[in-house]
């Protein structure tokens, strides 16, 4: 009896959170895209006052950048200074 109540509560919790999962995933993806824009803004001509500090993040962000340009439909990297493919 206790197991069936736990399953019912778990199912109820999943039903309530399911519509929000997509929203949360979309918000996280948008934040990641904004962070990538800030990180690579100097390469596309937007002045970045913290460019020196963002240089240190390139080795850690190169895989995310590769996933981003593939998700945007670009087979090769759009920036000439980054070789991720």
From TrEMBL:
Classification via InterPro entries? CC_star_Cory (IPR047717), DUF7990 (IPR058303)
- Going by the entry's taxonomy, the superkingdom of the source organism is recorded as Bacteria
Q: Check the record and name the NCBIfam families matching this protein.
A: CC_star_Cory
This chain's protein is named DNA helicase
From what organism does this protein derive?
A: Virgibacillus natechei
Lineage of origin: Bacteria, Bacillati, Bacillota, Bacilli, Bacillales
């Amino acid at each position: 009896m206790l197991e069936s109540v736990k399953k019912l509560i778990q199912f109820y919790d999943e039903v309530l959170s399911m519509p929000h999962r997509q929203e949360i995933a979309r918000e996280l993806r948008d934040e990641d895209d904004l962070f990538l824009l800030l990180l690579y803004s100097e390469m596309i001509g937007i002045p970045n006052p913290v460019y020196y500090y963002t240089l240190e993040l390139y080795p850690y962000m190169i895989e995310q950048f590769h996933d981003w340009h593939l998700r945007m439909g670009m087979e090769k990297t759009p920036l000439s200074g980054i070789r991720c493919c």
